[in-house]
Known about the structure:
The complex is a heterodimer.
Chain A: H1 4-25, H2 28-44, H3 55-78, H4 93-100, H5 106-113, H6 116-127, H7 132-139, H8 143-160
Helix pairs in contact in A: 1-2, 1-3, 2-3, 3-7, 4-5, 6-7, 6-8, 7-8
Chain B: H1 5-12, H2 18-30, H3 32-52, H4 62-71, H5 73-85, H6 89-100, E1 116-119, E2 122-125, H7 127-135, E3 146-153, E4 159-165, E5 168-174, E6 179-186, H8 199-212, H9 220-228
Antiparallel strand pairs in B: 1-2, 3-4, 4-5, 5-6
Helix pairs in contact in B: 1-3, 2-3, 5-8, 6-8
Amino acid sequence: MPSAEFGEQLVSLLPRMRRFARSLTRDPADADDLCQTTIERALKSWLQWQGGTRLDAWVFRIMRNIWIDEARARTRRKQTFAPEEDGAHIGDAGAAAVEAHAELGNVERAMARLPADQREAVMLVLVEGFAYREAADILGCPMGTLTSRLVRGREALMRDLGELR
Amino acid sequence: MTVSAEQIAAFVDDELDPAARARVAEAALRDPDLAARIAAERALRDALRAHFAPEATAPVPEAWIATIRSASSDNTVVSLSAARAARSRAWLGAAIAASLVIGVAIGAQLHRPGLVTAAPGGLVASGALAHALDTQLASASTDAPIRILGTFRRQRGDLCRVFAGADASGIACHGGSRWQLEQVRPGIRPDSGTYRQAGSADADLMAAAQAMAAGDPLDAGEERAAQQHGWR
Lengths: 165, 232
């Protein structure tokens, strides 16, 4: 059974979990479903968390894996073709919907236009502040893959958000 | 010196070692374009952080917090004692039976490495433990190396079994194809000598089981029927 300390740490992560879930799913309702599933999974698998390592990285990895599985299942249900490699472009279906909301800020729109693999790399490193090594572990990819996604994501964002220059 | 896009990013993200960092900083002093690029990268990061910052402190659904707190141990102590107070006759009987078990600890050693396996969704039973959960009936397993103390159905409908062995004890629930470990506790070891002194540890496990259960534990007939249906 998870310790009270584990529980309280998890509680303190909830807002960031929700933020990451929204960036993965691009849909608030899906994001909340994803959070709930992640909470259940984390409580069930708490023994696998190595005390002394970052709980946030561990929880984010669980969340991201659940989402990849879920997005794959959805893709199969819809019987549409999607590249299977690495889940790179899965989960982008919401991007068009997000862009349709005119009231969204520039940053939100620019993020929505990024391919999923670049968006998650940008979220983890630039917004969440994970080190490259930690972000690569969360995404289950080599460091080189992470840095190239990061560079491409940044370039696309800077093109979109030209006024920052 | 030419500075790659990766190096600029790593510079802004503070991922360069001190020597490489100094080289980029020095290059930026001589190259206004590079300096502007670094400034733009910094501005991008600041803009993203500022944009997403409010979400990091926004309130989340109370239900999530309640789920976590009720599943972590402090509150469980409270709910367990409440559960004990409300213990039904059948559970009381099962707990007493468990605490009275004095089985001869026969020599069959458990296969230590194989009892529990980490799977993507959590811990699952394997080896001798999976075998015991699949095949042993609580009504007939007092001198087996792994004892099955009881079988019950959880609120969500799946079947769970309480087990106790020298290396591990706990509660496992049948997740379709395998036994997902919901609770893992230290093994309940036979005292020095040949008789088990397992009473209070067993009773604790049964109390935890009762807290999870939707109703009474299965009786011998129901347990046999559940086994014939593949523990579904």
